[in-house]
Amino acid sequence: MAEVKMFGAWGSPFSKRVEMGLKLKGVEYEYIEEDLNNKSSLLLNYNPVHKKVPVLVHNGKPIAESLIILEYIDEAWEGPDILPKDPYERANARFWAKFIDEKCMPPMWKACWSIGEERAKAKEEASEALKFLENEINGQKFFGGDTIGLVDIAANFIGYWFRIAEEIVGLELMTQDKYPNLCKWAEEYCKCSFVKENLPPKDKLADIFKGIIQAQSAPK
């Protein structure tokens, strides 16, 4: 049997992407939890460039970066498709997954933890990016159509992590009136049994987000 190890962090949406991919394919693996404040020598050896989780190790060979790992999983193991078979649809899925990482997540995260003009700018940037996703999901249950695919897994931060952070900080960004399609997708996505089993506990994430707020408000 092939040896599969996965280095991750329980609260990381990037780590959870990889775990979802492995479980979707029915791959057995050893999970190694990393302390991100004290990274193991193994992790640093396997990912010396970025020094980050997640890292997948398959028969001693490391693969880094969550979206690249998901493509590897899709090609290496049989099971439900993560990416579409059609070349155009595959390219389209890659485009939107990259769009989420580069254009959606950074300003959404920044909007949660910045203040004043910086928050207003991040909010505007995030709003513009979310409009594209709102149009892309229109008329579909998932970005992958009737089944969960690469873009849905890539958007896990938007569907779960961000909504918890948004509630904690009192940020009104991804609202039902502005983004009805995205909100419906997030609801469908998070109540899907496969996804639900692979999401970190809401209360634990909420505690981390509250800790960020406390750290920000502490006297310098």
Low-confidence stretches: none
Distance between the termini: 53 Å
Q: In which order are the strands of the major sheet placed?
A: 2-1-3-4
What is the averaged pLDDT score? 95
The fraction of residues in strands falls at 5-15%
Question: Mind explaining what this structure looks like?
Answer:
- The protein is α+β, with helices and mostly antiparallel strands.
- 59% of the residues lie in helices and 8% in strands.
- It has ten helices and four strands; from the N terminus they run βαβαββαααααααα.
- The chain has a four-stranded mixed beta sheet, with helices on one face.
- Strand 3 (55-58) and strand 4 (61-64) form a beta hairpin.
- It is globular and about 50 Å long.
- The termini are far apart.
- The model has no long low-confidence stretch (mean pLDDT 95).
